[in-house]
């Protein structure tokens, strides 16, 4: 599965610690990340990460393009809800694309842990559900 890792500045350490804790699960998947987040994950683990630009410089939009093409399976975006972000429209657009495409997105550690634990158990059923509940499909 293709998994995106994005973390605002004050959440980067939390993301790194999370990936370290679940490194064995992540090892079996393709990882993508915005610039600095990807660098920090690679420096702290033995994982390879496809890195895009920094979020404010277009990295969120690059990941959004993969979501729009249905090339992303899961997005973990540790947002800082207490800090205004200059690229908030890009963030909202990415989250909207995830909703449109039916891509699970975790915006905090609790939801990220639920999703990654399901990955660890081999539960990828959400990809099969995407079209199941469209109008006219029984």
TrEMBL record:
What does it catalyze? dihydroxyacetone phosphate = methylglyoxal + phosphate
**GO cellular component annotations of the record:** cytosol
Q: Report any Pfam family annotated for this entry.
A: MGS
- Please name the top-level EC class of this enzyme: lyase
Mention one GO biological process in which this protein takes part, according to its record.
Answer: methylglyoxal biosynthetic process
Keyword hit for Lyase: yes
Q: Which CDD domains match?
A: MGS (cd01422)
Any GO MF annotation of the entry: methylglyoxal synthase activity
Any keyword Cell membrane?
no
Any idea where the MGS-like domain is?
Answer: 1-138
Q: Which residues bind substrate?
A: 8, 12, 34-37, 54-55, 87
Record keywords: Lyase
- PROSITE patterns xrefs: METHYLGLYOXAL_SYNTH (PS01335), MGS (PS51855)
What EC number(s) does this enzyme carry? 4.2.3.3
The active site lies at 60
In terms of domain of life, where is this protein from?
Bacteria
Function, in words:
Catalyzes the formation of methylglyoxal from dihydroxyacetone phosphate.
Report the family membership.
Answer: Belongs to the methylglyoxal synthase family.
Matching entries from HAMAP family are given as: Methylglyoxal_synth
Protein name as annotated: Methylglyoxal synthase
Native species: Paenibacillus ginsengarvi
